[in-house]
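User: Quick sanity check before I run a bigger batch. Here is a single chain. Can you write out its predicted 3D structure?
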Amino acid sequence: MTEADTGATGRSQVGPSPLSAVRLSVNDEARELEVDPRTTLLDALREHLHLSGTKKGCDHGQCGACTVLINGWRVNSCLTLAVMHEDDEIVTVEGLGDPGAMHPMQRAFVENDGFQCGYCTPGQICSAVGMLAEVEAGWPSHATADVGSPDVALTNEEIRERMSGNICRCAAYPNIVAAIRSTAGGGPQ
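Assistant: Done. Predicted structure follows.
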């Protein structure tokens, strides 16, 4: 770099990044955006598409408040870039259901009082839906008693382990487990 490039302070004088066109499928709707290529999927959803259900908690992938479903699997949207998901099906909590036609997991969270302040609830619900898909696919977890079995027993311990990436600061965990259990159809505790 020359002195003209860095200026008197020694810092690079690079202009803003060019915008990238991206076409996202969010909640069964095609959406076209122009974003900085460094824009996270979380920021694209909240700031560009105004889908405020997905929450920004830690912005480091540690709390799960930003969990969405991508092609049916749960993903922390703060850890992935929007431009990476052009051909993917993205579902946010708004796409699962609405007050007039709730998804069974949304209904279970209401019926089992699976929330207090509600900030983490959208991520908890998306994560729970994705987690049940993982169980259905036979994916074991650290708590799975028999990892060789295609059938995973959805015990309370199994649910807690699988949901451990979603933090609830209000500690509504027993009710979250109850909501998931009621949606999954009960089973061993």
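Strands lie at 20-26, 29-35, 67-70, 73-76, 89-91.

User: Great, the batch can go ahead then.
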